[in-house]
Design brief:
It is built from ten helices and five strands. By secondary structure, the protein is an alpha/beta fold. The N and C termini lie far apart (40 Å).
Length: 233
Amino acid sequence: MSLRPIFYDTETTGIKSEKDRIIELAAYDPQRDKTFSKLMNPGMPIPAGATAVHHITDEMVAEEPTFKEIAAEFVEFCEGDSVLIAHNNDGFDVHFLRKEFSRSEMEMPEWKFFDTLKWSRRYRSDLPKHTLQFLREIYNIEANNAHRALDDVMVLYKVYMGLVDDLSLETILSLMAETKAVTRMPFGKHQGKSLDKVPSEYVKWLKENGALDKPENGELLLGFQKLGILVAG
């Protein structure tokens, strides 16, 4: 049986999974043409800064279920040999999912995951940016209600189809399992620059602040190591 892609997105109270919570979870299963979309009560106030991004207020989630109350429904939606796909999955969404399952004293299924942001950085290194909305424009996808989970999921599905063309999901996962060095700075004030043009002081700052130790930045670390800017080990 072939792998089944499930495109998903989260909206949260902030950016730190250790203290912030998921307040919206959405997913799309293209094989069954079914969607999943739930607001949830995080059990904490939603900061104004977060509301300014996704426009979800305390009043909107006050009577909604908790993550624990909707978790089984989401697991059922993703049943089978599924691959959960999100943009910046490895740096954001999957950490929130794991933490919410842990808080709920539930075991998260052993899903496979795929990060379209990492794929874009690796195979569309010609692009100056790799945000979901920038990729939407590159692939001529109609505008949406950005930063609401289900809207972003549907854009993600269309962006994914442009990014991977006719490659199978099995091939995609195999390619991403191969460790390759990136050649251009994927984020920050030097985004888009060739790695050999990034100031050594900035590279040192990234290393000292732990940015290059994060799993999602492993290919960037390898790139600096291959250039001799950082020593392996």
